[in-house]
């Protein structure tokens, strides 16, 4: 690759996280405004309503498996193993995260597991690619 192609999927994933935080603020404001809960309920998240709890969980999900994604992308770049298949794999992972987050926050869970598994498999393959690149370069 010639530039920073490996990092654009990371930027796209960060954008997803920022969007989820914005949605969380909106949903929490709605439940406070409706009188469903008091603002203090969010301090310890003990009584968070379902509408905002699912968004909060979607945010937490973006800091679990994606940690390995960020690490492998940076390592692929450093190792100069960030070729077209690696970049495509990174984009597939990010797309799968978008689908998974959308399914989670909308309650349309039809493809949520499938999108998680697709991202998981692609991430695993990125790590295999990195390992193979290091072993045979």
UniProtKB/TrEMBL annotation:
Q: Which GO terms describe its cellular component?
A: membrane
- Give the primary localization class: membrane
Q: Enumerate the InterPro entries for this protein.
A: MAPEG-like_dom_sf (IPR023352), Membr-assoc_MAPEG (IPR001129)
The family database entries (Gene3D superfamilies) matched by this protein are listed as: Membrane associated eicosanoid/glutathione metabolism-like domain (1.20.120.550)
Organism superkingdom: Bacteria
Compartments in which it is found: Membrane
Which keywords does this chain's UniProt record carry? Membrane, Transmembrane, Transmembrane helix
Transmembrane segments annotated in the record for this chain: 6-26, 59-78, 84-102, 114-136
What is the name of this protein?
MAPEG family protein
Q: Which organism is it from?
A: Peteryoungia ipomoeae
